[in-house]
Structure formats: C-alpha cells, structure tokens
Specification:
heterodimer, A: mainly beta, Methylamine Dehydrogenase, Chain H, 33 strands, disordered N terminus, B: alpha+beta, Immunoglobulin-like, 3 domains, 6-stranded antiparallel beta sheet, 6-stranded mixed beta sheet, 19% strand, elongated
C-alpha cells in the first residue's frame, strides 16, 4: 500500500477532532525529520517561564502562544516546524507537557510548557489522529492505519509498547478513559461494531462489548453520575449505544448519533445530531432528552459553560463563520459571534476557564470568546493553516488527566 | 626515382620514410583522441522504466545511446504474461529510435523485453516495465530485470569466426608485402626453379588466407544475422538490409575478387607484382571494413577508432604475415644449396624482414596500447574481467614471441652472418658455423627455422585471442557492468541494527544516492545485537519525505523470502529525502531515519547502471598506457631507423 500523507488523510478524519471530548481537541504538526536524538530544535538552555493560562495555537509553520485576556501572541515556536499537519493535542495532567500529533511524519511532538520549547519528536505509528493521556506517565497515540495505540512513556519519550485495539488491524479509533474505570478503558473503532475493553496495565484488549454486526463506533462520552458510557454507532447505523461501565453490558441504544460533550457540572450531555443539539440528562439511567435546539449549518463542536445566568453551550459550525451560543435553560440560541472562516474541514473548539477558543484556518486566525462577556472577542492572527488549539489549564470538563 | 640495381635503396628509404610518417601520424592521432560515444544501450523509453500509468500506451518507444540500431526485437508482455506487441520498427530518420505498438489489456504490470543489434555487430538486451492502474512493481521482477540487462558475451562461434578472419587479414596483408620486400629481392641470387617453388608457396599461403577469409566472413555474417534469434533465409535477408549486412556483402565480394586474383596468379595470367599488389590492397580494403565496425570505431570514435584498429591489424600483419613467409619459404631457399650461400640468403631475408617486422611490431605496439587504454582504462578493469584476462594473456604471448624473435634476430642471425652487428652495434666475434657435410641444413639454420615456427605458432594463438577480444564485451564495458550497484546503510538502536539497502544505488557519507524516477528496490533488515537477522512483529513501513517540497510518501514493505522487507519505488523529485524505516522487531517499536539524495535526471543523461561503459575514460591507468604507447612508438621508431641504416650500410 502506498499512501500520500497529506491534507486528504487529515481531512478525512478531522471531522471528529473538534467535537471529541477534551483530551484530543486539535490537530497536529511536523517535527524535525531524522531527529534521532529526539531533541528539540532549540538547544540553548531555556528559561522556565511557564504557559499556564495561555492558548497554544498550532499553524503550519508556527505554534503561537496567546494570552487569551489580551489577545496577544506572547511567544511562539517556529524552529523545526515546516508545513506541519497537526492532529490531536494533549496536555498532561500536571500541565507540564503538551503532546501534539504531526501527521505528515507520523510523529508526536513534545512541548515543554515551562520552557515553551520542543523537547522531543517521537516517531509513532502510521496515520495517527487521536491521542490520549489515560495514565500519568503515558500518552497513547492511535494509529488509524493499524488500529492500535502507540504508548509513549513520558520519561523516556519513546514508544514503549503497542496495544492492538481494532479487530481488523486498522481503522480510525478513539479511547474512552476515566478515573472511575480503574485500570481499564474503552476503545472504539469505525470498523468494529463494539466497544473494546482495554487493560491499561496489561496493554492489551481483553474483551469487546458487541453492539451488533454492522457499522462501527466513533464518538464516545462518559457520564460519571449515571456510570454510562456512550458510543456513536457510525456508518449506516447512526444510533448511540449505551453501556453500563460497572457491568460492561450494552444497556440501551439512543436513536440519534453524533459528537458528544459533557457539561462542567456533569449534569447534561450535549449530542450534536446533524443540525440539532440534543441535551440529554447525564444523571439518569434512561439518558432522557431534556431539550433540543436546531442550529443552521453543520455544528461541529459544542462546549458547555456555567455562567452566572446559568448553563450555556457554545457551538462552532463548520460552514459558518459564527459561533452559536445557546442557553440550556431556555433551550434557544441567544447569541451568534463571528469567529472567522474555516477551509472546509470540521472546525475545532476548546474551552478553557471561561473562554471558548476556536481556530479559523482559512483566515489564519484564532477567535477567543470570553463567555461571561460575549462582547469581548479577540481575533488573533496566528498564521496559515491554524486549525488546532489547546488551553493550558483547566478546560472545564474534568476529563484531563486522572 | 633513383633506383639501385636491386632496388634496395629505394625500398629502404621508402620503408623508413613510411615508418616515420606512420608513427608521426599515430602520435598526432593519439593527441587528438577524444572518446565520446558508447555502445548501443537503452537510454530512455516511453513509458519510462517503472512508470505508473492510468492507461496503457498505444506504443512503447525506446531511445538508444551510442550506435545506431541495425536490428531490433521488442516484445511486450501484458499482466497475464501474454504477448501484446506488434512489429518492431526502427525509425528510418533516426536509427537510435525503436518503437512497437501494443494492445491495452488492462491494469497490471507490463514487461518490455528488448534486444538490438548495433552498428558494431554486437547485441545488447534488457527488460523494463511499467504499470497501469493501481498495480505496484514487483520486487523480484525488478531485480531480475536489472540483472538480465547485459551486453552479449559473444559466442565461441563468433570468436572463432573473428579469429579466422583476423588470421586471413594478416596473411593477405603481411604475406605479399614481406614477399615483395624481403624474399623476392634476395631470390634474385638463386635459381629459377627455386623461385618457382617460392612463387608456388606464396600463392598457396595467400590462397590459404583467402580460404580463411571466406570462412571468417561467412561465419561472422551468419552469426550476426541470427543474433536476434531468427534463423535461415529470412534472417540473412533481414541482415542484408542493414548497414552491417551491406558491409558483409562487400566483404563477400572482396573475398571473391581475391580468390579470382589468386586463380589468375596460379595460372600465370597476371604478373607476380600485379597479383601481390592486388591481394595486398584487397586485404587492406577488407581490413578497413573490419576496423569500421570494431569496438573502437563504434564505442570510441568512428574515425579514430577505425584508424587505430586498422593500424593495429596492419602492424600485426607485417609482423605475423612475414613470419608465415619465413616459416614456409626458408626451407626451399636453403635446400640443396651451398651452405654459405644458403646462410647468406637466409640472413639477407631475415635482415630485410627485421625492418618489416620491427615496423609492424612498433605499429601494433603503439596502437595496441592505445586500444588497451580505451578498452581497459583501469587496473581493475584489466584484472577483473574476461577481456582483461584475455588481453593480459595475449600481451604475455606477444612478449614471449618478441623474445623468440629477438633471439632469432640478434643471436642466431649473428651465427648465420659473421658480419652481423650486435644489439649495440658492435661486431661480435664470429662463431664457427657448423655445416653438415652432406650439404643439408646447419644446426643454426634449423634453429632459425624452428624459432620462426615457434614464434609463428605463438602469434597465431595471439591472433585467435584477438578474435575473442573483438567478440566479447571490452573490459571497460564489463567493468562498468558491475551488475546492479547496491548500497546500504545501517543505524543502531537500543535493541540492534536497522539496515536499509537500495538497488540500484550508491552510497557515500552515510547517504544513499539514487536516480530520479528510477525504480529502486528498498529493502529493510532488522538485526539484533548479536547481528542475527530478526523479523518484525508488525508491518514494516518506509516513510519518504522530500525536504524541499514536503512531499511525503508512506509505503508498507512486503516481507521477502529472505526475511527482509522490501518495496520498489521511483522517487518523484530530485534532491534531499529523508527515509524512515519503522517496524517492531522483538516487541520493540523501532523507527530509524536515513538520508537519501535523488540525482536529477536530465533527458540527455543516461544512467543505465547495467551498462556503465568506461570506454575512453581518462583514467590515470589509461594515461600511463597511452604514455607507454608513445614510448614504444619512439623506441620502435629509433629501432626501425637503426635497422634501416645498418641495412643501408651493409648494402653499400
């Protein structure tokens, strides 16, 4: 098999990036080729200046560090970055490192958030898209070409083992993990109509929860209150399978499917079902639909914010330059905020403190919306191809780290 | 023209002047020799070797470098192995272009097998391939293709035919001139019966050469006409339509003419002088046809190659053809004659022949070294090829023959002729020459005769080896044809070594070098710390990234029977590339990077690795050979001059 690695591959999978849960909230970059010693391009001893509260924006030739309050780029990394194609970015539980997937070279770029330099580039499996941080000392990158997770040790900054997850040895896959799960996690794969149980200690797939014969699994979420895990049944099925994480049983199936995100208070689960944001009760066994709001265009990612006035959702759409703000209590759209144009791939978006951050790669900008005062919008020029963002800090969903 | 009673002064002066002019010409030719061209080998094709096409082309076009194509046979096989090509056509306006129509039989790998007969009479053959649709090139097929492309190694039959032809040419040129210059002037002192015997023997010798000529010409023509596989009348008819075929017809006509002249001579219809001259010039004409299609003329430069090759054969003709005359004519000269008179006659012939032979040796020596400089330009080429081995053997035999000739000329001749001078011109004490009481041949005479015969036998062996040299790839070609150049680089990791090899490729400074668009077999091997080859637990991949354009290609490698992991790829852009091999040997994920440079491929640049022709390369070794040739020329010129002056003084 020969495959041209480029925007085509990225575009085909980027649809899930912006709307996946917050572990993988962006896309990837390029690193120095043949960097055998895995050292960063900046060799001088950098000062420990920290990155807490900054937004990292990943463009083709630059990683910009933005102060969301002022909308200014306070620092950037350009060395060793050349026409990079970013995919997932992950911040470690201690916020000391950012791992970013660079797809064109199938590498993970490790950025030290204290020094703001690239510490290493790590070769990983082919066609990597998503990356997860299920254990304090490990980052797991999924190789879609192999349907397997490449486990990177944070101390050695090398791939220590490979965990086979997909049944066919290939397919776009994700990992659902939470501290409630203990030493297990669930893996989905668009080729497998099942949720695979992964033993995080044994580094192996120990079982699979079957949902039927057809389709696969894609988006996923977990609601701690109910103890349910949700898996979008992708392909022609377009339902959402619900499993009880205590018993690992397939307990329910919702008649809609899409990207999901949990509110910071873990009370509601938002599900983007094509042009509708369905708001589900995250505390009930039945996953009761509390409300639904129609949205023009193609909603790509939703994030919830608890403001003084109540719970709100910010929804970024792929085919619109505006962010839609929804009042969950009222079940209606209360605001539309310009956020720049995207080039066609699914728009990404993350939350951080009270900010909703979304890149506009067609404009080369990043929009930072202060949700408590939605008139306060910063549009920051970053560079061509900026399509991935990450907030260094608490992104509000309680999913980071353990 | 002033003429002495026996004509010797004029002959001497003419011979000396001719020798000097000849050597001077050679020096000039050698100074202006600028080898440029090569053999007929595939330089480009459309589709290119390794091309990946969406649809099959209507025709396959092949462009050759070096010589024009006389005959071509191109066969194309489709993905299912069936032959899908029509008749091969050589462009009448440009005989380096060959094309063949093909059928479109769908997706898959198409294999093009070609074989051509070039102007130099040699066949070259090869195979290349292209794909239609999504089909990938097969590693084993590519490897086989690279190893199959080759010059022909010649055949025993062709070598024999060439050797016989050279023997004939040497006889046709050397026998008449030696008879005319060395034998007949001396025979004026002997009886008419003996002269008739000599005439008869000379005619028989030339007739023998003519028979060899006919055998050689016919044999060579048949060999070449069947070079591309066809046989019988159609093959000969097709061959006659080529330039080589036309030359061959001319050679047959010349052979017939020489035979006719000899019949006339045998029947005393024409005078001795006339038939000797006719045979000599017939041999010269035949030599020109042979030299025109020689290795040197076709691979180096048509004019220079023809001249050098011609002079080489001509020089050998003077030397060896003369020896043939001595070996056959001396006996009737001495039989029944007074010992002293016999000795004097033999000594006189040898003295005259010595000038001819020295001239021939000088000419053959100079040109032989120039030819060696062209066709064996490096010591490696000389020592490491069949051509080099044959050439070395030939040179050794030539030196041995020269030693025998030296003994005859400088030792035995002094025994025959008390007034003969030594090597440095001093008159040596005259040894007593034993003469048999019955008036038969003396011991010295017998030694002279046997010396000449041994020298002749050795030199006949030399000529047969020369025939072989003209039928096999030269050392320059064979040394350049080192098979597929393969290069490999290793990198170490914690658990062992990853080796990446490429073929065809070169390496330097831990970097691989390949050619743009050329299909290259990349092969990865994993070894543990003990050096033992190990397999990967998961798919081994090769990622190739082009630094300038950021093009990235990722390929799954296929496991081979050798336990390596391989693919065939033609990298699409020149410049620096980084290659990464990744796999999981012994449960450890390994990803190692390698540097590679793709050499730009200009349209006029040919890079057929299997035909790395070194012919005419200006190497130090070739320079020394050329210099040695000039030294031989100067020494030979001096020797010929001294011999001629001594001969003149003696005549006076």
């Amino acid at each position: 098999m020969m495959m041209a690695v480029g925007a085509g591959v990225l575009g085909s999978v980027a649809g899930c990036l912006g709307s996946d849960d917050t572990e993988d909230s962006g896309q990837t970059a390029t690193a120095s080729q043949g960097d055998d010693d895995q050292s960063g391009a900046q060799t001088e001893s950098p000062e420990a200046i920290g990155s807490e509260g900054l937004v990292y924006a990943f463009a083709s030739n630059r990683i910009a560090m933005i102060d969301p309050e002022t909308g200014e780029v306070v620092d950037d990394i350009t060395d060793s970055i050349d026409e990079n194609e970013w995919s997932a970015v992950v911040i470690t539980h201690d916020h000391s490192q950012v791992f970013a997937i660079e797809q064109s070279l199938s590498q993970a770029v490790v950025i030290n958030t204290e020094t703001r330099v690239i510490d290493a580039t790590i070769d990983i499996g082919p066609s990597p898209v998503h990356m997860y941080h299920p254990k304090p000392n490990e980052v797991w990158a999924h190789s879609d070409a192999e349907g397997a997770f490449y486990v990177i040790d944070r101390d050695t900054l090398a791939v220590e083992t490979i965990v086979e997850a997909g049944l066919d040895g290939e397919g776009h896959g994700k990992l659902l993990h939470h501290e409630d799960f203990g030493e297990k996690a669930y893996a989905g794969n668009v080729n497998d109509p099942a949720a695979h149980i992964i033993d995080l200690e044994a580094y192996e797939r120990t079982d699979s929860i079957s949902f039927g014969k057809d389709g696969g699994t894609h988006y996923k979420a977990y609601t701690p209150e109910s103890g349910h895990a949700y898996f979008e049944r992708s392909g022609d099925i377009q339902t959402t399978a619900v499993i009880d994480t205590e018993t690992d049983e397939f307990v329910d199936e919702l008649p809609y499917a899409g990207a999901m995100s949990l509110s910071p208070d873990e009370s509601v689960l938002g599900l983007l079902d094509e042009g509708t944001l369905r708001i589900l009760d995250a505390t009930s066994e039945e996953s009761t639909e509390l409300d639904s709001v129609s949205i023009d265009g193609i909603p790509a990612v939703a994030r919830f914010f608890t403001l003084d006035e109540g719970l709100y959702a910010a929804v970024a759409t792929t085919d619109s330059a505006a962010i839609v703000v929804i009042s969950v209590a009222d079940g209606e759209i209360v605001d539309q905020i310009p956020a720049g144009e995207v080039s066609g791939q699914r728009r990404a978006g993350v939350s951080g403190d009270s900010y909703f951050i979304t890149p506009a790669d067609a404009d080369g900008t990043v929009a930072i919306v202060y949700m408590a005062d939605r008139d306060h919008v910063e549009t920051v020029a970053v560079g061509d191809g900026v399509d991935t963002v990450l907030y260094i800090g608490d992104s509000g969903t309680g999913y980071l780290g353990r | 023209m002033r003429r002495s009673p026996d004509g010797t002064d004029d002959e001497r002066s003419m011979l000396g002047r001719a020798t000097l002019v000849g050597i001077a010409l050679l020096v000039v030719v050698s100074l202006f020799t600028m080898p440029a061209a090569g053999h007929a080998y595939l330089s480009e094709s459309n589709p290119q070797n390794g091309a990946a096409l969406d649809t099959a082309p209507e025709t396959v076009e092949l462009s050759y470098a070096g010589d024009g194509i006389e005959l071509a046979d191109v066969t194309v096989h489709g993905p299912d192995g069936s032959e899908i090509s029509g008749d091969t056509t050589i462009d009448s306006d440009d005989r380096q272009l060959v094309s063949v129509p093909i059928e479109d039989v769908g997706d898959g790998m198409y294999t093009v097998q070609w074989e051509v007969l070039a102007d130099d009479g040699h066949t070259t053959s090869g195979t290349f391939f292209f794909t239609v649709g999504e089909e990938q090139l097969d590693r084993d097929a590519v490897r086989d293709t690279y190893s199959e492309d080759d010059d022909d190694d010649g055949t025993l039959f062709e070598s024999g035919a060439k050797g016989i032809l050279l023997l004939a040419l040497i006889g046709l040129v050397g026998i008449p001139i030696t008879a005319w210059v060395a034998v007949y002037p001396v025979s004026g002192r002997i009886t008419s019966t003996t002269i008739e015997q000599i005439d008869l023997r000379i005619i028989q010798l030339v007739a023998g050469s003519a028979v060899l000529l006919a055998l050689g010409v016919v044999g060579l023509g048949l060999t070449r006409s069947t070079a591309l596989g066809a046989t019988g009348g159609p093959a000969v008819q097709q061959f006659i339509g080529t330039t080589l075929g036309t030359i061959w017809l001319g050679q047959l006509a010349l052979t017939g003419a020489i035979v006719g002249i000899l019949i006339a001579a045998y029947r005393n219809i024409i005078e001795r002088r006339a038939w000797l001259a006719a045979v000599f010039f017939g041999g010269i004409a035949m030599q020109l046809t042979v030299s025109w299609s020689s290795h040197s003329a076709t691979a180096v430069d048509r004019l220079q190659g023809t001249v050098i090759d011609f002079v080489h054969i001509f020089g050998a003709g003077l030397w060896v053809g003369g020896l043939v005359v001595l070996a056959v004519v001396v006996q009737p000269l001495v039989r029944g004659r007074e010992p002293i008179a016999a000795r004097e006659s033999v000594a006189a012939i040898i003295r005259r022949y010595s000038i001819v032979a020295l001239t021939g040796v000088t000419l053959a020596g100079i040109t032989g070294l120039f030819l060696a400089a062209w066709h064996a330009p490096t010591a490696e080429a000389l020592l490491g090829t069949l051509y080099g081995t044959v050439l070395t053997t030939k040179t050794g035999l030539v030196l041995f023959a020269l030693g025998i000739g030296g003994v005859v000329r400088f030792v035995l001749l002094r025994s025959l002729d008390p007034t003969a001078q030594g090597v440095f011109g001093r008159t040596q004490p005259t040894p007593t020459v034993p003469v048999r009481e019955d008036g038969g041949e003396s011991t010295t005479l017998r030694r002279v005769i046997w010396g000449v015969r041994i020298e002749l036998v050795v030199l006949i062996g030399v000529i047969l080896l020369s025939g072989m040299l003209t039928s096999i790839p030269t050392a320059a070609v064979a040394a350049g044809d080192e098979g597929i150049p393969q290069a490999s680089i290793e990198t170490e990791h914690d658990g062992g070594v990853v080796e990446l090899s490429a073929l065809p490729a070169d390496d330097a400074n831990d970097r691989l070098f390949v050619h743009e668009y050329e299909p290259v077999i990349y092969e990865a091997t994993f070894r543990d710390q003990s050096g033992e080859q190990i397999s990967s637990d998961r798919t081994v991949r090769l990622l190739a990234t082009h630094e300038e354009s950021d093009t990235a290609i990722e390929i799954d490698l296929e496991e081979t029977q050798d336990g390596t992991y391989a693919t065939v790829q033609a990298l699409p852009a020149h410049g620096d590339w980084d290659l990464r091999v990744s796999g999981q040997p012994e449960d450890t994920f390994v990803a190692e990077w390698f540097e590679l440079y793709v050499i730009i491929d200009h349209p006029e640049h040919t890079h057929d690795h299997s035909h790395g022709d070194l012919t005419g390369e200006q190497t130090p070794f070739a320079g020394w050979l050329g210099l040695l040739g000039l030294v031989v020329g100067v020494i030979g010129m001096v020797a010929v001059s001294i011999e001629t002056i001594r001969f003149g003084r003696r005549q006076h």
